[in-house]
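The records we work with from here on pair a chain with its fold. Here is one such record, which you should read through line by line:
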Amino acid sequence: MFHNLYLLIILLYLTMITDLLNLLIGFSLILISFSIILNYFKFSKINFFFFLLIFLAGIARFQFGLVSLGFIHESKPVILRVFIFLFIFPPTYFLCLKSFIYGKARWKIIIKHYLFFLLIVLARLSFGEIDLKLIGALFLTYTAFYYFLLTKISLTYLRQHQSIYTKQQLFKVKQLIVWIFALSINNFIFSTYFIFFSDSNKHDAIQGMFHSTIIVWILFVTYLFFNPSILFNEVFNKKDPKRDFLKEFSIWNSKPLQKLDTRDAAIELIIRKNVEKLIEDLRNLKPELIIQSNSTNLIHEMALHLNHPKSHLKFAMKYHSRFSQSDYLNLMRVIYALTLLNNGYLENYTIETLGEKCHFNSRTSFYRHFKKHMGVSPAKYKTLIE
């Protein structure tokens, strides 16, 4: 008996804590939605669909928290009074991600994606109550279709654009895509819970769906706190003049990449103590200093700009580089071309001029080596960063 009483008390406390968390998260989301609006007035940047998702989720959870804690008396949140309004969320999540990726959506696209939702609303107004099982089946099909679209647009975008992001940028882009999926799945659980369980006990259905989905919103609000650029619609900023391609390509390794040849044992003993300094200097060697050379005098050019003997540089190139001398030289030319591209070089010059400036022998050679390392041609890269 006492065991059951203690269990009941614990459950009551957990329920109260969850209700309080819903109240706090709802209030936080409302504040975030207002910050998005303020940012729009200041910088004219907004992802309207992201704002809509944040605002609706904030209002619903804030009102639920107020009701559950006894501050106000309502049977259920405003946006759930007519549950067919749950159909607004699947296209909104899709348009939210699409707007993050490609910018503002055209009105024709918006109307097309909300057309089914409008038809459902008109059916509700014309015929009154609609059978819950029918609504549930429609909702599941509708949501599955938008998960397909979300998956397609995410994979297509990452495949086409991964070469133009830094590793840090790419990680942030993938993070946001994962969060859009997580929130949409959260909303799917939320909506399905309400549609299939509200027929028997509306209060328990509403409480269950708010309690079961709160943890994802807590994590998401925390994520927004550490990634405020999302609020300003700047996560998918692809053009980065300060991008460090030298570090990104990981050309040099401080540890040997192959077994030491006995003929090189003597030089290895000499440079062993200074190998870290040697590799660090090579990592920082600016591409523009050596791209005019060729593979036969590359080591000589490198020695002119680094305070290391040629023998040490040859050893480093043989054992600590992921590229041969010729491949390394062409990669440095590509890296220099990338740096110029990201600094707006093509605003005043042509791609052919860029290839010549980077000391490629021909346009064909430039395109071949650029595509080898970046996965796209220089022309395609230009369109991707614009």
